[in-house]
What we know:
By secondary structure, this protein is mostly beta strands. The protein contains 3 helices and 15 strands. The chain has helices at 2-18, 37-40, 259-271; strands spanning 41-45, 50-53, 56-61, 67-71, 75-85, 94-101, 112-118, 127-133, 147-149, 160-166, 170-175, 178-184, 197-204, 224-237, 273-276.
Amino acid sequence: MAPLLCLLILMITTCSDAQGPPSPGFSPSSKFSPIRFNQGFRNLWGSQHQTIDQGLLTIWLDSTSGSGFKSLKPYRSGYFSAAIKLQPGYTAGVITSFYLSNNEDYPGYHDEIDIEFLGTTLDKPYTLQTNVYMKGSGDGRLIGREVKIHLWFDPTEDFHNYAILWTPDEIIFLVDDVPIRRYPRKNDATFPARPMWVYGSIWDASSWATEDGKYKADYRYQPFIGRYKNFKLGGCTTDAAASCRPPSISPSSAGGLSQQQYSAMESVQKNYVVYDYCQDPKRDHSQIPEC
Length: 291
């Protein structure tokens, strides 16, 4: 009887996990209208590895090049999102990304807010990595603030919405309107505040992307494809009035997260986080005082 009971408990737990986190009770993505790629972005590099067809942007990596795109304007704050569908199969060493950065404006001393999909081998799921750099912590001797999760769905089967909210007080990462991570501003030294552009790219990061570089990009599986659509840019550009304020992603116009949104985020952090830099005993915590 005991083995049967254990099996039943395991089945219930597995089914519960497969359902994903509880509803956040609010859909911030519905507050923003989608734009066409050319309304908000342009190709940055690898133009021969990019196509646009009826609102669908496709970029790909092969042995000759990857591709990247960039927003037409820089932003001081805002909500930035895209629906993304990833390549199935062997994708080790490949990074598909959507992020904010000012690395072209401040080379060697830049800020960055990342959503990165770390490619994988045939037997393992994708890892979604969020990361925050500020004032050169992503240059030279890296001081990353990585949190990695395994999603509650297969990101290769369909498009899912991935978003970054960046305000003067906090950064919130969302997947299908579920907050997965909140990075608050605890002091000026640990928070990116300078204007940034919105980017996306697919590229070869074999040296570190998959299990710390154990598995490399294998171009027998090329091309590696990233598909993007439903772009949304809602925020304060650098030429906006000083009175411009970042949008709220909670039911309250005051910003922050509702209790229901916090509960959904806590469920993600409890059940789907596979790495949190603050919990890593190998890290030098004097470099990451916000932990």
